[in-house]
Write a structure and sequence with these properties.
Layout: E1 2-4, H1 7-27, H2 29-33, H3 38-57, E2 60-62, H4 65-81, H5 85-119, H6 124-133, H7 138-153, H8 158-187, H9 223-246, H10 256-274, H11 281-301, H12 305-309, H13 313-337, H14 342-355, H15 359-373, H16 377-406
Keywords: Amino-acid transport, Cell inner membrane, Cell membrane, Ion transport, Membrane, Sodium, Sodium transport, Symport, Transmembrane, Transmembrane helix, Transport
GO molecular function, one term: glutamate:sodium symporter activity
Protein name: Sodium/glutamate symporter
Length: 407
């Protein structure tokens, strides 16, 4: 028996899930100790409940996928609308270095996946699916490329496999980021935990902060600001849907969220630098953080954990090896390349989301770490730009090139 919930009920339950996550993180020491994001905790609790309902009573619950996609697009739009060219320039050398680290790991991820698939007697393209297609690309890329693998390359069940693999990445990416950063911070004595009374600090002026850097701070927003900002969000999302349909099947086909983000980048900089329009960064930040929390809770509470249970042993082995390789890469490469500093440790937490989950997970990871150890302006400047924009373009090129090698 399947129960389908509409958009309003989906939002209501996702808000309840966020409160559950907040309750568990606040009251369970180990969750707070290892900086596990609240949407991840609440979403996993909801996913376990739906799994029990399915296994014991054959009941499935379907949440509204459209509203989940809208919140996802709003989040990526907020990243684009926050991407001022001045802030991009501010990222400078650190942004380039981190982007290189991420790109190298995208290539390494596919080498590991394809090599293990061959060793285990599987089609090499299955190794690609359990590589950057799903782990770096996430559910959106898994769905988009899954149909291509099924129709053009004869990989039956590629979509289900991709969704299961992306699910694994989303969960592990959210669970791994905080502990990884904590390990590095404590091992190298990079920072001390800040007192609870000091965790809410007044945010600097908007032109001195990066997107999502101070999610807990109060922001003064007028109705006029909110209406104008909603108009920009709506324009970017409409453009994204149009371009996704127009580009379908063409060489420049990209996931819908990439178009939303790109439109946000272009719109913001045209208005700001071309027409000297003052941007409503506080409003964009509030919309982006709210969309991030709701999207993550919806994505995780919609997980069908029985798909993971059905994963064959070899595929699960590949996923576990990918996780281990990322942990080693962060410790021996990213952390050292980025300077062995507190910022480098926070960036490692973010890369767990970028290369093993999704950009929203990356943002949630670094928010959880900085809530415990203090701000990291560099991480909030670099992670959204790298994870939500550059890496998706790089990943699309890498996937297309790799498929051509095995076609």
């Amino acid at each position: 028996m399947n129960y389908e919930l509409d958009a309003f009920l989906t939002i209501v339950i996702s808000v309840i899930v966020l409160f559950i996550g907040h309750f568990f993180v606040k009251n369970i020491t180990i969750l707070k100790k290892y900086n596990i994001p609240e949407p991840v905790v609440g979403g996993l609790v909801a996913a376990v409940v739906t799994y029990i309902l399915f296994m014991l009573f054959n009941i499935t619950v379907s949440f509204d996928a459209k509203i989940q996609q809208i919140f996802m697009l709003m989040f990526f739009t907020s990243v684009g609308l926050s991407a001022s060219l001045l802030k991009l320039k501010e990222g400078g050398k650190a942004l380039i270095l981190f982007l290189i680290c991420v790109i190298i790991f995208v290539l390494l991820q596919n080498i590991v996946g394809i090599s293990l698939a061959k060793v285990l007697g599987l089609d090499p393209l299955i190794g690609l699916i359990v590589g950057s297609v799903t782990l770096t690309g996430g559910h959106g890329t898994a769905g988009a490329w899954g149909s291509v693998f099924e129709q053009n390359h004869g990989i039956h069940g590629a979509i289900v496999l991709g969704m299961a693999s992306a699910t694994f990445g989303l969960v592990i990416g959210g669970m791994m980021g905080g502990p990884m950063a904590k390990f590095l911070i404590r091992r190298y004595q990079l920072a001390e935990e800040i007192a609870p009374s000091a965790q809410r600090v007044e945010a600097p002026p908007a032109d001195e902060t990066a997107p999502f850097e101070y999610p807990e701070n109060t922001r003064l927003i007028t109705a006029d600001d909110a209406v104008k900002t909603m108009g920009m969000f709506a324009f970017c999302i409409c453009f994204a849907y149009f371009m996704a349909d127009f580009a379908q099947g063409k060489w420049f086909e990209l996931p819908t969220f990439v178009w939303a983000l790109a439109c946000g980048v272009v719109l913001r900089n045209i208005l700001e630098h071309g027409f000297k329009v003052e941007m409503f960064d506080r409003c964009i930040d509030v919309f982006g953080n709210a969309s991030l929390a709701l999207f993550l809770s919806m994505a995780l509470m919609s997980l069908q954990l029985w798909l993971l249970a059905d994963l064959a042993g070899p595929l699960l082995l590949i996923l576990l090896v990918q996780t281990l390789i990322l942990a080693l890469y962060l410790y021996f490469v990213t952390f050292r390349v980025m300077g062995r500093s507190y910022d480098a440790a926070v960036l490692c937490a973010g890369q767990c989301g970028v290369n093993l989950g999704a950009t929203p997970t990356a943002i949630a990871n670094i928010q959880a770490v900085t809530n415990t150890y203090g701000p990291s302006h560099k991480a909030f400047l670099i992670i959204p730009l790298t994870g939500a924009f550059f890496v998706d373009i790089v990943n699309a090129v890498v996937i297309q090139f790799t498929i051509s090698l095995f076609s």
